[in-house]
Amino acid sequence: MSLDVRQAAEIRSSPRPRRELTTAFVVSRIAVLGVAAAILLYAVPPLVAAESWVSLTLLGLASAVIGYLYLTRRFVPAKYLVPGTVFLIAFQVFPVLYTVSTAFTNFGDGHRGDKAAAITAIETGSVRQAPGSPEYGLSAALKDDALVFLLVDPKTKQVQAGTAGGLTPVQGARLGVTGKVLEAPGYTVLKTQEAAARAKQIAELAVPTDGGLIKANGLSRAVEGRAALAYDAACDCVKGNGDTWKADESQGYFVNAKGEHLAQGWQVNVGVANFARVVTDPTLSAHFLGMFTWNVAFALLSVLATFALGMSVALALHHPRMRGTRIYRIALILPYAMPAFAMLLVWRDMFNRDFGLINNLFGLDVDWMGGMVSAKAAVILVNLWLGFPYMFLVTTGALQAIPRELTEAASIDGAPPSYAFRKVTLPLLLVALSPLLISSFAFNFNNYNAIALTTDGGPFPAESPTVGGTDLLISYTVRLAFGTGSAQFGLAATMSVFIFAIVATISAITFRRTRKQEDMYA
């Protein structure tokens, strides 16, 4: 028996691999059980407080299944499948389902809560101080982690605690020179910096009284006023200021006879209204075809250009006579190693017309970001610089897997190098890299950073100030949903569903064609 064979036999008979496998299995089991226990301990108190018994039951059953699964020696495959399945559901399935469900709602600014929260916001937001109404010294405090107003009557120096439930007398409070509460038994008085951090909560809190509502006026004063608008349950409407707004459940608004609605609404299911708006609204549909064409061209040119350049460099360094390949590879990887967002900002400044490096270096006077064609060319050039190192890496790995005997056989048969590349090397590369090319297309189709950090969608024509010449569907969706001063999550989710459907369709068609190619060269 030779030495190599004897060493291999000793390694196979050694118990070390089995011991290492057992140790790794025990560590992974402890890790999974620890994470499950942590989630259970963290989630149970809020679910009990919210009386969400269905969710609590599901959580208990899931924890019991995980405990049984990892405390027994049976079901070994399931021990590895369960974590992956959980992460798949949590980070893939649930976000997709949540996005689709949001697309059927009017969720957004003014429609974030339910109807009761909207009524409360309307009434408290209309509170106005009446002449001669009481004023109080205000100190914000916490009790059981809940925000409380400590109100001091300037005449009687009586201290009361104000919450959304009303007023409660406070005994034993210590006042400062300015009349503010410094200490109160059972309350944690917030310092000025702490109160400023909760300014939004302080402004939203309204304390009901017999005469109206007490609201904060700054951080040190509170006033009692009356709500100009009040909800009437008999007519399901809001009355005040000589007008009436009736509830429209289809829109989630209170609307008056003139068709005007109050700013605060509530979240409702609007069905396919968002989808119909995307198709029929001239603001959305008028530029869809041109934007979609550019979107496909941008993604396709980015993939083809980066693949062509990366493959060319990889083929050059793969040549047997090439020397110093390590140095070249390190230099070529630098763009891939640098943060993409930082490089995009650098390239944006390099394309500046007045002080940009490109114009100064070549003696040009091109307004790169001001013209439609030049801006698109600049974006594709930047994406080429950022993306070709990745293609160089994957192509280098794929070339290592292609036997040199195939190309050598082609050259022996008298085939020129170009013929051997087209008939042997390139088809085998495409078989190996087709999934990566498809995923790269999907990534560039939604490459928001490449547009937002370089051209911000511009240039914008005078007749269409909301749709830029380099806008992708995703950048236009972000501007449409969040660039108008208010967030329209429902509309953004609808556009996301459209984009997902487009990318999924293109990817499915491409995968089917690449599968035929794989069968041909299998």
UniProtKB/TrEMBL annotation:
Its membrane topology is listed as:
Multi-pass membrane protein
Instruction: Give the coiled coil ranges.
Output: none
The region annotated as signal peptide is: none
Pfam families given in the database record: BPD_transp_1, TM_PBP2_N
* Alphabetical UniProt keywords: Cell membrane, Membrane, Sugar transport, Transmembrane, Transmembrane helix, Transport
What is the top-level taxon of the source organism?
Bacteria
Q: Which positions fall inside the ABC transmembrane type-1 domain?
A: 292-510
The UniProt similarity line reads: Belongs to the binding-protein-dependent transport system permease family. MalFG subfamily.
What protein am I looking at?
Maltose/maltodextrin transport system permease protein
